[in-house]
Design a protein that fits this description.
Pfam families: B_lectin (PF01453), PAN_2 (PF08276), S_locus_glycop (PF00954). Involved in sporophytic self-incompatibility system (the inability of flowering plants to achieve self-fertilization). By secondary structure, the chain is mainly beta. The protein has 3 helices and 33 strands. It folds into 3 domains: 143 residues, Agglutinin, subunit A (Orthogonal Prism), CATH 2.90.10; 111 residues, no CATH class; 120 residues, no CATH class. Strands 25-24-32-28-33-30-31-29 form an 8-stranded mixed sheet, covered by helices on one side. Strands 1-2-12-13-14 form a 5-stranded antiparallel sheet. The radius of gyration is 26 Å and the shape is elongated.
C-alpha cells in the first residue's frame, strides 16, 4: 500500500466540519443525511477519531478516491475505497444521497462514479455514518440498509480483495475469504487458483496457524449466528489496533499499532516457506527447518525420484506397501502437523475420536482420520479418502493425524 499523509487543508477543513456539526441538525462529524453532502476537502471522522472518510489520491495526483483510512500516525493507511474502478479526475467530487435514496459519488459534471445500488426509495430518513469500527453504514430508523464491510477491500474489514497496484485500488487478482463447506477455513486465491490456506478451524485456531496467537495479541473465534458464520479477531485488553492487509503481490500482512513508536508494525506475513498450497504433493510433509523442505511420510517414497532430485516435489509420494483393507491395516499417529486439506474429507459431528477410528477402519477407501475440534469434550470426526495433501510439520501447536498403514505396529512418529 502507498504511504498517504493528510494535507494541512484536509486537516483544517476536517476541523471546521467538527465545529460546524453542533450548529447543523442535518449534518454530523461522523455522518450525512438526505439533506446534506460531503465535498472534496472535507472529511467525516468516526466518533472516537480512529477512522476518517474523505477524498484522497493514492499516489497519482490526478486521480482521487473516496476512502476510509486509519486516522493515526503519519502513514494513515487506507482500509476501504468506494470508487475503486472509477477514480475522480481532479479535485472535485461530492458524496450525497440521490433522489432514489442511494448514496452516490458524483464528479463535477454530475456523473455517478459510485453508488450503493440499493432498491429505490423516496421515503424514509436515511443516514450514512462512519462507525468507530471503520464500517460506513446507511441506516433508516435503526435498520441497516448497507455497509462498507459488505464491499471488500484489501484490508480485513472483514474480507479482502487485493489492489491491482500500490497506487491503483481497482480489484487485483488475489482474494482472501472465509469458506464454510465442511469446516470453516480461510483461502487465499489467485483468481480461482488456491494459493494458501491456514487449514480448518479446530475450535481453537486454524490447524495450519500454530503461531497465529503465540504473541497473545488476539482472541480468535469462528462464530455461527443463525444463517451467518464469521471469523473474528478481537484485540486482547492492553493491545491497540490491528489490521490485516492483502498486498498486490498476494501476501497477507498482519499489522499492529504501536503507541510508543507512533507507527504500524508488521507482526507476520504469509505465505512463507512451506505455506504454498500443495508444494510437497500427496503423502509428503513440509518442514521449514529441513532442506529440502519436502519429505515423504514414513512408509512412502517419491512418486518420481528424478523430479524429487530436481526440487520439484509437487508429484508427492506413494506407498511402499499397498493397503490390504484387512486386519493387518492399522493407524499410525503422525504428530504435530497441519491436517490435510479437506477437499476429499468427510466431517461428522457428535462423534468421539474412538468412533471416528472405527468409521475409518470400516471403509477401505479411508486413508486417515483426525479430530475437527480439539477443545475439551470436542466431538468432530474428520475422515479422508484418497490422497492427503498440504501437510506441514510444526514444533508446537500442531495436531495429530492418524494415518492408515499396512503395518499397524510401526509406532508413533514425527513425519
Amino acid at each position: 500500500m502507498g504511504k498517504h499523509t493528510a494535507t494541512p487543508a484536509i486537516l483544517f477543513f476536517g476541523f471546521l466540519l467538527v465545529i460546524g456539526a453542533s450548529s447543523s441538525p442535518s449534518f454530523s462529524a461522523d455522518g450525512i443525511d438526505q439533506k446534506s453532502s460531503l465535498r472534496a476537502g472535507l472529511s467525516l471522522f468516526s466518533s472516537g477519531g480512529s477512522f476518517q472518510l474523505g477524498f484522497f489520491n493514492l499516489g497519482v495526483p490526478a486521480k482521487r478516491y473516496l476512502c476510509i483510512r486509519f486516522n493515526r500516525g503519519n502513514e494513515k493507511p487506507v482500509v476501504w475505497v468506494a470508487n475503486r474502478d472509477s477514480p475522480l479526475n481532479g479535485s472535485d467530487g461530492i458524496l450525497r444521497f440521490g433522489g432514489d435514496g442511494n448514496l452516490v459519488l458524483v464528479d463535477k459534471a454530475g456523473n455517478i462514479a459510485w453508488s450503493t445500488n440499493l432498491n429505490s426509495s423516496t421515503g424514509g430518513n436515511r443516514v450514512a455514518r462512519l462507525l468507530e469500527t471503520g464500517n460506513f453504514v446507511i441506516h433508516d430508523a435503526g435498520r441497516v440498509l448497507w455497509e462498507s464491510f459488505d464491499e471488500p477491500g484489501d484490508t480485513l474489514l472483514p474480507h479482502l480483495t487485493s489492489w491491482k497496484a500500490n497506487d491503483d485500488p481497482s480489484p487485483g487478482k488475489y482474494s482472501y475469504r472465509l469458506v464454510v463447506e465442511k469446516l470453516p477455513t480461510c483461502v487465499l486465491l489467485e483468481g480461482s487458483k488456491l494459493k494458501f490456506t491456514p487449514g480448518m478451524w479446530n475450535g481453537v485456531r486454524f490447524t495450519g496457524s500454530p503461531f497465529h496467537n503465540a504473541n497473545n495479541f488476539f482472541n480468535s473465534s469462528v462464530v455461527s449466528s443463525g444463517d451467518e458464520v464469521y471469523y473474528s479477531d478481537s484485540l486482547i485488553a492492553g493491545t491497540s489496533s490491528s489490521r490485516l492487509v492483502l498486498t498486490p503481490t498476494g501476501e497477507l500482512k498482519r499489522y499492529a499499532w504501536s503507541d510508543e513508536g507512533d507507527s504500524w508494525t508488521v507482526l507476520w506475513t504469509v505465505p512463507w516457506e512451506c505455506q504454498d498450497y500443495g508444494q510437497c504433493g500427496p503423502y509428503s510433509t513440509c518442514t521449514v527447518s529441513d532442506y529440502p523442505h519436502c519429505r515423504c511420510l514414513r512408509g512412502f517414497r517419491p512418486k518420481s525420484q528424478e523430479d524429487w532430485f530436481q526440487g520439484n516435489c509437487t508429484g508427492g509420494c506413494v506407498r511402499n506397501t499397498a493397503l490390504r483393507c484387512g486386519a493387518s491395516d492399522g493407524f499410525r499417529p503422525v504428530v504435530s502437523v497441519k491436517l490435510p486439506e479437506l477437499l476429499n474429507a468427510t466431517v461428522t459431528t457428535n462423534m468421539s475420536l474412538e468412533d471416528c477410528r472405527a468409521r475409518c477402519a470400516n471403509s477401505c477407501n479411508c486413508t486417515a482420520y483426525g479430530s475437527g475440534d480439539i477443545r475439551q469434550g470436542g466431538r468432530v470426526c474428520v475422515t479422508w479418502e484418497g490422497d492427503l495433501v498440504d501437510i506441514v510439520n510444526f514444533t508446537f501447536n500442531g495436531q495429530e493425524l492418524f494415518l492408515r498403514v499396512a503395518d499397524a505396529n510401526s509406532g508413533t512418529y514425527f513425519s
